[in-house]
Write a structure and sequence with these properties.
The complex is a heterodimer of chains A (167) and B (354). Chain A is mainly alpha-helical. Helices cover 78% and strands 0% of the residues of chain A. Chain B contains 13 helices and 6 strands. Chain B is globular, with a radius of gyration of 21 Å. Classes of the chains: A mainly alpha (167), B mainly alpha (354).
Chain lengths: 167, 354
C-alpha cells in the first residue's frame, strides 16, 4: 500500500519537476514547482515527520513561492523573451552527469536502513513530532536557534531600511 | 470483520470512505444553503423578505442558482493565460475542502464492535486503547489555508484585466498579513493545551459545564482569531478584494459560469472551515451534555456551534461597513500582531507561575 502510494507520488513529483524547466510560461513553471514541493511534503509524512511536512507546505509552497509568483507577475516577464543559449547546454550535461554518478554511488554503496537512535516512529507517534523538535530546539540547540533569530532580525531591519527612503 | 486487506480490517476502509463521503456531502450542502441563509438572514435584518419565489419561502433558491450558473456561457478572455485561468478556481476550492480531513466532528462511536473516531484523518488503536490523529492538525490547516492564496492571485493575474489584478493583489496582501496574525493568536491556545492534535484539544475542553472552553481562558485569542480569520477569507467587513464600488468584482471579474460558482463555493466553504476550526479550538468542539452516554449527540453539538458562528458571520455582514485599505493593513500589522505577541507573553508568564 505504502509502496504504491510512494510510486504514485514520485511519478507526480518527477513529472512536475520536469514541467518546471520545460514550461514556456514562468507562472506555469512556478505552479509546477509548488506541486513538487507538495510531493516532497508527502514524503515527509511517510517518513514519520509530520511537522516537517506542514512546515514544508507553509514555508516553501505557501510563503516563498507566493513571493516568487508575485515577482514574476509584477516584473511581467514575457513568454519567449529569453533567447535560447546553447553554450549552457554542455555545462548542464557535465553537471547532470556528475550528479547522476553521485546519486548512483549513494544508492548502491550506502546502507538504506531505518534510522537508529533515540527517536523511533512509535515515540514520534506517542509524544508528537512538534513537541520533540521543540524540546531539542530550546535545550540542546538553543545557541544556533538564537543566532538564527538574530540573523533573521538583521535581515528584516535591512529590508525595511532598503525599502524606505526616509526613516 | 474477518476479512483483512493489507493488514487492516475491512471495517477500517468502509469507515474511512463513509466518513469522507458524509463530511464532503455535508459541507457541500451547508455551502449551498449558506448562500440561501445569508440572503434570508440579511433580508430579515434589513426588514426585507429575501428570496421567496422558488419553492416554499425560497427554499429551492440554491438549486435554481446552481442550475442557472451551470448553463451560463463559459467565457475565457482571449488575452488570458489559459492554463492559470482554468486552474485558479480549482486551487481556490480544493484547500477549502480538504481542511475538513483533520477537524473532529464527534467522539468515538462503536459499530459492530469496531470503534470509529468521528474525524476523517484518525483511527482507533485497540492495542493502545486511544485515538491517534494527525498530531500536527492545526499546522495542517494553516498550511492549507496558505495555499488558498494562489487561487486568488492566479485568478487576478491570469484574467489580464486591471480590476482583476488589483483585486488579486489586494486579496493576497490581506491574506498573507492576516494569516500571520491568526497563526500567532492561536499559539496561546497551544501553550495551554501542550499539543497540536485537534482531537486532544477537544478532549481538554470537556467537562466543567462548558467553562473549560478555551474561549473563556483565552478570550482575547478567541476574538482575534475569529476576526483575523474573517479577514483571511475575505468576508465583510474585510471584503476589499471584491469591493464592487472600486473594483467591479475584484479577482473574479472575468469569470463566468461554473468557474465563477467555484470561487463562490470556495468563499463559503472557507467560511465553514473557519467556523469549524474556531468551534474546535475555542468552543469545545463536539463537547456538550450527555455525549458520553450518546456519542451521536457529538456531531449535533458540533454542527450547532458551527452554524451559530456562521450566523455571527452573516450578522457582521449585515451590520458593519467595509474597511478602507490602509485601515485594514494598520489593523493587521499594528494592532493584531502586537496584541497576539503580548497575549503569548502574558499566557507564558501566568502559565509559569501557576
Amino acid at each position: 500500500m505504502e509502496t504504491l502510494f510512494f510510486l504514485i507520488i514520485s511519478l507526480v513529483a518527477i513529472v512536475s519537476a520536469i514541467l518546471v524547466i520545460t514550461c514556456k510560461n514562468p507562472i506555469n513553471s512556478a505552479l509546477a514547482l509548488i506541486m513538487t514541493f507538495f510531493c516532497l511534503a508527502t514524503y515527509y509524512v511517510m517518513l514519520d515527520a509530520p511537522f516537517m511536512a506542514a512546515v514544508q507546505v507553509m514555508v516553501y509552497a505557501g510563503a516563498i513561492m507566493v513571493l516568487m509568483v508575485f515577482t514574476i507577475m509584477l516584473l511581467n516577464i514575457r513568454v519567449n523573451a529569453t533567447r535560447q543559449q546553447s553554450h549552457k547546454v554542455l555545462f548542464s550535461i557535465i553537471l547532470g552527469f556528475f550528479t547522476l554518478i553521485n546519486t548512483l554511488v549513494i544508492i548502491f554503496k550506502s546502507r538504506a536502513a531505518l534510522p537508529t537512535g533515540p527517536y523511533s516512529g512509535d515515540m514520534i507517534k506517542n509524544i508528537g513530532h512538534t513537541e520533540l523538535i521543540g524540546k531539542e530546539m530550546f535545550t540542546n540547540f538553543l545557541l544556533p536557534f538564537e543566532i538564527t533569530s538574530i540573523l533573521l532580525l538583521a535581515a528584516i531591519v535591512g529590508a525595511v531600511i532598503l525599502a524606505k527612503k526616509k526613516i | 470483520m474477518g476479512m483483512e486487506i493489507l493488514g487492516l480490517p475491512m471495517m477500517y476502509y468502509i469507515a474511512m470512505v463513509a466518513k469522507v463521503l458524509v463530511a464532503f456531502v455535508f459541507v457541500l450542502l451547508t455551502v449551498a444553503y449558506a448562500t440561501y441563509a445569508e440572503r434570508k438572514i440579511i433580508g430579515h435584518m434589513q426588514v426585507r423578505l429575501g428570496p421567496m419565489r422558488t419553492g416554499w419561502h425560497g427554499l429551492l433558491q440554491p438549486i435554481a442558482d446552481g442550475v442557472k450558473l451551470f448553463f451560463k456561457e463559459e467565457i475565457v478572455p482571449s488575452q488570458a493565460s489559459t492554463f492559470a485561468f482554468l486552474v485558479a478556481p480549482l486551487i481556490a476550492l480544493i484547500p477549502a475542502f480538504i481542511t475538513f480531513a483533520v477537524i473532529p466532528f464527534g467522539g468515538v462511536i462503536e459499530i459492530a464492535g469496531y470503534k470509529i473516531p468521528l474525524q476523517i484523518a484518525a483511527y482507533y488503536d485497540t492495542a493502545a486503547g486511544q485515538v491517534f490523529d494527525v498530531n500536527v492538525g492545526v499546522l495542517y490547516i494553516l498550511a492549507m489555508s496558505s495555499l488558498g492564496v494562489y487561487g486568488i492571485v492566479l485568478a487576478g493575474w491570469a484574467s489580464n484585466s486591471k480590476y482583476s489584478l488589483m483585486g488579486g493583489l489586494r486579496a493576497s496582501a490581506q491574506m498573507i498579513s492576516y494569516e500571520l496574525a491568526a497563526g500567532l493568536s492561536i499559539i496561546a491556545v497551544f501553550m495551554l493545551s501542550g499539543t497540536l492534535s485537534l482531537n486532544k484539544i477537544v478532549e481538554l475542553q470537556s467537562g466543567m459545564g462548558g467553562f473549560a472552553w478555551y474561549a473563556f481562558k483565552q478570550p482575547l485569542a478567541f476574538f482575534m482569531f475569529f476576526v483575523c480569520s474573517l479577514a483571511e477569507i475575505n468576508r465583510t467587513p474585510f471584503d476589499l478584494p471584491e469591493a464592487e464600488t472600486e473594483l467591479v468584482s475584484g479577482f473574479c471579474t472575468e469569470y463566468s459560469s461554473m468557474k465563477y460558482a467555484m470561487f463562490f463555493m470556495a468563499e463559503y466553504a472557507n467560511m465553514v472551515t473557519v467556523c469549524a476550526l474556531t468551534a474546535t479550538l475555542f468552543l469545545g468542539g463536539w463537547n456538550g451534555p450527555l455525549t458520553s452516554m450518546m456519542p451521536l449527540l457529538g456531531p449535533v453539538y458540533f454542527v450547532a456551534k458551527v452554524y451559530f458562528l456562521m450566523f455571527v458571520c452573516m450578522w457582521i455582514r449585515a451590520t458593519l461597513p467595509r474597511y478602507r485599505y490602509d485601515q485594514l493593513m494598520h489593523l493587521g500589522w499594528k494592532v493584531f500582531i502586537p496584541l497576539a505577541l503580548l497575549n503569548i507573553v502574558v499566557t507564558g508568564i501566568i502559565g509559569y507561575f501557576i
